[in-house]
Write a structure and sequence with these properties.
15 helices, mainly alpha
């Protein structure tokens, strides 16, 4: 069955709840970036806020993964989703009251990042509990469709709301959107109980995951690719608003449309994966999609018209989904059940945890040399990194057609 993951009742509930919540999340992402630029006019300070939002993900995601191997994943998700809902509502109240300051945004971004550090590994590992390994690749792709379908709707709606009513309403609607996922989680019957073998102490669990990744070449290669791409390429929350404002001279609505173009390409890629991919992708596919992402960021440095920028961002969105769903699927299928949460914690570190450094890098370069140079440097250095990693992997004799765990 092409969309076999939707046969599972609990996954359908989870999928629908995530769709509503992710629309709100992308609305907040656009509103937060625009609010920082309104308050500071500084690309560097925008990069700092993005870095603060993702720093907890870098340091605490392995702990979040260990928690999801130790406790029922549904319970972990109920706690993390509630915390992020409260963060959005506090931000809305501060903006509406007129008392919002830059440091408020920075602190609340860090709190949101703390919630995500616990939420992402548990959410990723929970998918296998909901659908089983046979439908995992399809479920991962469908989750990507949800996230990136929301990336189309959320930024476009946020741009219109910001232009008409200001940023506060976008934050409020994000807080309300968490109700959908909380209701879905309460209705789901699958607890996502941990494997008894995975009930280790936090320190022992994290060290065990690192040791497993180091002695499993396909896992190490996949995580290495993700570090390079996440650090140097996947910084669109900083790059796109700067391209919109400083290169194309657009307002909030144009920024929202560019983010929607990124999401449109991602949805096309997600549906393509959901309908066509069967099982585990080869490592060569990951390397090729990573290289294409790097080249696409270099192309973004050259754009001068809205239509061309939207087309390049759509291509980047498609390639991002092909790359990230491939990495996600490989890691979950290779990892044993008792390690799955912790391996997905490492996935979160390499996927979202590198963003603080990437955001600061983009912010610093854009502040001093311009956003075009920031895009060109990120893409070129990233492409070089992918080539070096592939050469090292070839010398190590990693199988490119089918990766197996040990």
């Amino acid at each position: 069955m092409r969309l076999g993951a939707l046969r599972h009742r609990d996954f359908r509930l989870f999928w629908i709840g995530q769709l509503v919540s992710q629309i709100g999340t992308w609305m907040q992402s656009v509103a937060q970036a625009w609010l920082v630029l309104e308050l500071t006019q500084s690309p560097l300070q925008l990069g700092i806020v993005s870095a603060l939002q993702f720093t907890p993900v870098l340091f605490l995601s392995p702990i979040g993964g260990a928690l999801s191997d130790r406790f029922a994943k549904r319970r972990v998700l109920l706690i993390s989703q509630t915390a992020m809902k409260l963060q959005a509502l506090v931000l809305a109240v501060l903006v509406w009251s007129g008392h919002i300051q830059y440091w408020h945004v920075a602190v609340l971004a860090a709190i949101y990042g703390l919630g995500r550090a616990i939420d992402i590994p548990a959410r990723q590992a929970y998918v296998t509990d909901l659908v089983g390994r046979s439908d995992l690749a399809n479920a991962v792709a469908l989750n990507s469709v949800v996230m990136n379908g929301a990336r189309i709707v959320g930024p476009a709606v946020a741009g219109l709301l910001i232009a008409a009513f200001g940023v506060a309403l976008a934050f409020l609607l994000n807080g309300v959107s968490f109700v959908a996922v909380l209701i879905a989680l309460l209705a789901i019957r699958t607890e996502g109980r941990p494997d008894p073998a995975g009930r280790l102490g936090i320190r022992e669990g994290v060290l065990g995951a690192l040791n497993y990744a180091a002695r499993t070449p396909p896992v190490a290669f996949t995580l290495g690719l993700m570090v390079i791409v996440s650090l140097l390429v996947l910084n669109f929350n900083v790059v796109v608003p700067l391209v919109a404002r400083d290169v194309l001279n657009l307002g909030a609505h144009g920024f929202g449309l560019l983010m929607s173009a990124l999401g449109s390409g991602a949805v096309v890629g997600g549906f393509g994966v959901a309908l066509l991919r069967r099982g585990q992708p080869p490592l060569s596919f990951l390397a090729g999609s990573a290289a294409t992402l790097c080249a696409g960021l270099v192309a973004l440095a050259l754009v001068g018209h809205f239509g061309v920028a939207a087309a390049v961002l759509a291509l980047l969105g498609c390639c991002q989904i092909l790359f990230t769903t491939g990495c996600n699927t490989i890691l979950q299928l290779i990892a044993p059940n008792e390690l799955r949460g912790r391996v997905m914690g490492l996935y979160t570190v390499t996927f979202a945890g590198m963003t603080p450094f990437g955001s600061l890098l983009v912010g610093v370069i854009a502040e001093h040399l311009g956003v075009r140079v920031a895009c060109a440097v990120g893409g070129a250095v990233g492409l070089l990194g992918v080539i070096v990693l592939v050469l090292v992997a070839r010398r190590a004799g990693i199988a490119w057609t089918h990766a197996r765990g040990v």
